[in-house]
Amino acid sequence: MGQENSDRAQWFVEEVQQHERSLRTYLHSSFPAVRDVDDIVQESFLRVWRAKASHPIITAKAFLFQVARHLAIDRMRREKISPIVTVIDSHSLSVLDDRPDAAQAACTNHEIRLLADAIDALPARCREIVILRKLKGVSQKEIAARLGISEQTVQVQAARGLKRCEEFLRKCSAHRDRL
């Protein structure tokens, strides 16, 4: 098994890893809306590595780009459906099976509920600015124009809102730790 892993590692370096730069270029140009190309590249590498363990891969570059393309499309779909940034640590997820186990799903749902509660606890104007700026990615200038306020006010309210959300989450965490 040691020689098999060594052979696979050599194959990976020679046939897959050498395409990292062109893969990044491809992802940036083809999927400019994807925020974290590094995650997609790493996840693509992991999927190719694991796929090679179970079956032969004829054209590594084509397979790598296909995997990355599918991951980028899936990421864009998820971000379009739910503009809230995922709270879970993506490094702890299984690469071949994207579905979280029951404990992870419950934890993620709980974290999303906590974040939603933190945002709901904000004053109305602050909440509106945080949602527009941090969750929907609307520019400060556009928010200011929409709401008839200065860009400085948008910046201050967004910062206050994030600070209040952090405090809310910290208090919830401290309360949970005491239980």
Percent in helix: over 70%
Cα shape: elongated
Q: Which structural class best describes the helix and strand composition?
A: mainly alpha
Rg (C-alpha, Å): 21 Å
* Range of strand content: under 5%
The biggest beta sheet reads: none
Count of domain modules: 2
Distance between the termini: 46 Å
| Spans where pLDDT lies below 50 across 5 or more residues | none
What is the count of helical runs?
8
* Total number of strands: 0
Tell me what the structure shows:
The protein is mainly alpha-helical and 179 residues long. The chain folds into two domains: 2-81; 102-178, Arc Repressor Mutant, subunit A (Orthogonal Bundle), CATH 1.10.10.10. The protein contains eight helices and no strands. It has helices spanning 2-16, 20-30, 37-54, 60-81, 102-120, 124-135, 140-147, 151-178. The longest helix is centred in the C-terminal third of the chain and has 28 residues, at 151-178. It is elongated, with a radius of gyration of 21 Å. 12% of the residues are buried.
Summary, kept brief:
This protein has 179 residues and is an all-alpha fold. The protein has helices spanning 2-16, 20-30, 37-54, 60-81, 102-120, 124-135, 140-147, 151-178. The chain folds into 2 domains: 2-81; 102-178, Arc Repressor Mutant, subunit A, CATH 1.10.10.10.
